[in-house]
Amino acid sequence: MSSTYPTIHTVGLSGVLVTFADALDDTANRAALAFRAAVDAEGWDWVHESATSLISAFFRTDLAEYPADRITGQLNDLLATRDWFAAPLPEGRKLWHIPAVFGGDLAPQLDEAAEAAGLSPQDAIAELTSTRMRVITIGFAPGQPYLGTLGEHWNIPRLGTLSPNIPRGALVAAVRQLCLFSNNTPTGWRHVGQTAFRTFRPTSDTPFPLSPGDELLFHATTPEDYKTIAANNNDGAGGATWEALS
Amino acid sequence: MTKAALKVHQIGPAAAFQDLGRPGYIASGLTRGGAIDTLAVHEGAALLKQSPDCAVLEIAGVGGVFEATAPLRIALTGADMTAKIDDAPAAWNAAHQMEAGQRLTIGAARSGSYAYLHVGGGFDAPVRMGARGGHMSAGLGKLIAKGDTLPLLPDIGTRTGYFLPRDARFDGGTVRIVPSVQTNRFPPEERARFEATAFKRDPRANRQGIRMEHEGEGFAAEGMRTIVSEVIVQGDIQITGDGTPFVLMCESQTTGGYPRIGTVIPADLPRMAQTPAGGKITFQFITLDEAVAIQQKDAKTRAGLAAQAQPLVRDIHDISDLLSYQLVSGAISAQADPFE
């Protein structure tokens, strides 16, 4: 970890970015989550909204109205109060249990992903259903979580040729991460599982069920049970349940 | 009393309800959306003397034919499209009265890219997650179709027959940018070349982003492949793998892994949005302090739009000081060669 981090940068005239590393790093992700929560708790008037990316915390504001110097000073003062790399994860997180079909017609790239990871399909499913995956960021598409982090042997590259249309609810794998798709999309990530979990529910009171820091545990289900869940899925839950994480 | 509405008899391929967007959801992966030219939204609100939060119809490319079901007020702003009410030409950047049964016909753009149809009271578009604007890439809202009826909210205003002077944002020009998080990844000579390059707006442009084309080599940052995906703000100019700049607009994704050379200042986003396909753009770096001063002036201009509105003059007998008008402005002089 370079001693030059964290850094503070303005982002256009629309906000400031506090970055905790120069490469993807789990402690930097935790630091960003903790720092965002701490800034939100301060209730500063200039913070119009906040977010985290993989290794940064972002605070949206109007720099024409609130001087960058004042904002940077406040952020530096708060950064100096503790070691953010050792900070605990924010409170109010959830552990989600989500049914998923692995392999077969519904998730046809499981076998090749397992092979790339040097595992048998059975061992790959065992790892994918026993590793608690943390939401390291939500982005690109509405509600779409990027989940970390699988073991080093899962550092499998994205495919050179995109798969043209992977369905929403798909669980896809690449570079030690999983992603749970919000929408049908072309992708170079490998389609290893299929869920009926909707990450964006526009007509719901809680349109975005997942938050950064939440953890997900996938439970292998049969294609028949998946079809039953998918046919009775008006709320978009896809058979998932959650419990509070302290 | 039945609600006033506009019946859609014809419509172009890309018309949808918009407003000032749906802020607050970046952490959940949803960008603000809203009208791509927010200045045009403020202009329409000033013409009708109502809130800029009223929902409007954003029209890309070509308009449509709309029939009023009851007396109602409209205003037309943004890209200049041919317009008439029944058979009478209707001035652009102006507010007009429509009577029940009258038809508004909006044609193709003469300059600019996005036109706006405002109605007194605003459109009663469904509220989704706190806003009425469509966000098509997220699946919020839908494109307007032939046969739709667009309902209006009650209108407490009465004023029509006013216009606003047009500005020069519809034909490209200089767009000012500030350095952003990854600007320093581009060597100084690469940034200088970027400023010196004449770009054209590519036809491949939409509410998510605008591709810029240019002659010569693409642009490159140091360590492009190792950049960690990072938050996007509207106006960010990302350089894709082949060196092509894309200006990210109101409906972009929330994060991106391509490096960004700079960010268009908010005051110049309407120019960016309205530059038509093939329109010429150059980018100019300014300091954050300069940008703040421009932005503060822009906020004052928007707040003062209502005071800028002037009565449309339809009948020469209404002009009390006719002789003070310079009626021959722009006429060809006797000496000039008309074929030159």
Which terms summarize this structure?
heterodimer, A: 246 residues, alpha+beta, Gyrase A, domain 2, Cyclophilin, 7-stranded mixed barrel, 4-stranded antiparallel β-sheet, 5 helices, 14 strands, 22% helix, B: 340 residues, 9-stranded antiparallel β-sheet, 7-stranded mixed β-barrel, 20 strands, 14% helix, hydrolase activity (chain A), ATP-binding (chain A), PxpB (chain A), Allophanate hydrolase subunit 1 (chain A)
Written account of the structure:
The complex is a heterodimer of chains A (246) and B (340). Chain A is an alpha+beta fold. Chain A has 5 helices and 14 strands. In chain A, strands 5-12-9-10-7-6-13 form a 7-stranded mixed barrel. In chain A, strands 1-2-4-3 form a 4-stranded antiparallel sheet. In chain A, a hairpin with a 3-residue loop joins strand 1 (7-11) and strand 2. In chain A, helix 3 packs across helix 4 (121-128). The radius of gyration of chain A is 19 Å and the shape is globular. Chain B starts with a strand and ends in a 29-residue tail after the last strand. Chain B has 340 residues and is an alpha+beta fold. The longest helix of chain B is centred in the last third of the chain and has 16 residues, at 288-303. Chain B has 2 domains: 5-160, no CATH class; 173-300, Cyclophilin. Chain B contains 5 helices and 20 strands.
Can you give the mean pLDDT of chain A? Answer: 94
What multimeric state do the chains show?
A: heterodimer
Report the span from N to C terminus of chain B. 61 Å
Q: How many strands in all of chain B? A: 20
How many independent structural domains of chain A? 2
Largest sheet of chain A: 7 strands, mixed, barrel
Structural class of chain B: alpha+beta
Rounded to the nearest angstrom, the radius of gyration of chain B is: 22 Å
Strand content of chain A: 25-35%
Within CATH, the superfamily of the largest domain in chain A carries the name Cyclophilin-like
Alpha carbon gyration radius of chain A: 19 Å
CATH-assigned fold name of the largest domain in chain A:
Cyclophilin
**Total number of β-strand segments of chain A?**
14
Strand-and-helix sequence of chain B, N→C? EEHEEEEEEEEEHEEEEEEEHEHHE
Backbone shape of chain A: globular
Instruction: Give the largest interface.
Output: A-B, 46 and 39 residues
Total individual domains of chain B:
2
GO molecular function, one term (chain A): hydrolase activity
Keywords (chain A): ATP-binding, Hydrolase, Nucleotide-binding
Pfam families (chain A): CT_C_D
InterPro entries (chain A): CT_C_D, Cyclophilin-like_dom_sf, PxpB
